[in-house]
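To whoever is on call:

I kicked off a structure prediction for a single chain this morning and the downstream step that reads the tokens threw a length-mismatch warning. I double-checked the sequence; it's 466 residues and nothing unusual in it as far as I can see. Pasting both halves so you can look.
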Amino acid sequence: MTAPDDVLAELRALRAGDLPTHGGRTLAYVYDSALPGLDDLAAQAHALASSVNGLDPTAFPSLLRLENDVVATAARLLGGTPATVGTVTSGGTESCLLAVLAARESRPDLGPASIVLPETAHAAFHKAAHYFGVRVIAVPVDPVTFRADPDAMAAAIADDTVLVVVSAPSYAHGVVDPVTPIAAAAAARGVRCHVDACIGGWILPHADVAPFDFSVPGVTSMSVDLHKYAYCPKGTSVLLHADADLRRPQYFASADWPGYTMLNSTTQSTRSGGPLAAAWAVLRHIGEDGYRDLARRTLASARVIRDGIAEIDGLRVLGEPESTLIAVTATRDDFDVFTVADEMRARKWYVQPQFAYRSSPANLHLTVTAANVGGEAELLADLRDSVRAAADAGPVRVAPEVVAAIGALDPSSLTPQEFAGLLAAAGFGGDAVLPDRMATVNTLLAAASPALRERLLVEFLGTLYS
């Protein structure tokens, strides 16, 4: 056996190579409240319930109480009524999956069903459609504001449509779709309307935005993540339904075998009580007033950063973000944003590259959290310096023959040899270790079609996990 101290020391050494999860320098993936002691509280609560199994709430009634408390807190925040019900899930993707599943299962009279969503909706809905055999009707958004077009969304609703999706806000650009007219159009056709508030549900109630929650007639379900702006540990989200009848098709039961009757409220069966207990503890500790203060300070920080970006020569913000997400693109052709991302990484910041899609050019995504409050000037100064350095270096140039070779590849028949050649062209070694600077890799990926990019990244993921 290895001594506990040695095991923990090894784990700490491994973690040292990760992006920082605190301090506001990782502007994607993580959410930092900057509140002292919150991590310790969550860890202790997690430990108290980590061995408890959420599969059977009658065996472990503490988890039933915790889940009902958490759901009630989310429902109060998002305009719920006494009829509103919900489920704690493992994350936003599972919440979105279950919203699609419940909608599909509510119409057993249909054959293959469809869901209508703006093309800016989160990819989790495409994943749900893929898993559950549902057809996606992706509707173009306004090319300038990136908001869903209510008339186009209404026109896309078909006889086999079981769900209409809107975002509050969309991940890519941080804008809130016009929920009221879209929900009304869905209701007029007898179709459910889901508001994906995974990233905004715990912060938009404190922002000056149009109604987006259960106060809007026609909204039948909402997803909101606790591990984002509720600042809970990873692994918790809430899926809310306007009433129990809407939620019922989400449940799964099977008595057609000799064991216990399987009964699941989520896609999981066994569920550790740890994440739920940690989320409950964090919600109780911060409280309504605490979240209001965190949201207001974070929204103010995002405005400072957004306004500061507008003053940096060569950059502009896409759309009119209303929350804490900012997408930044280049206004000149003497540098590219992928190099800016590398320069920011050299300055100990992580900003997330996003590829061009329709009217949305290649850009950098920034998720602002409470940890960024007070650090806006440093972030903006480093971003300005990174643009200058990227302009000095010039845009990434990929040989025309490489671009042509990428364009000629068929995603459905990509061979291991072709994949290995692309890895070599991108500067990877035989072990697929990421290079220090990713601009060339991202430029090559940008030259690929979305289908080819998916295939390449799936192949790369397989290489990593081997």
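Update from on-call: the warning came from a stale cache, not from the record. Cleared it. Sanity check on the structure: The mean pLDDT is 95.
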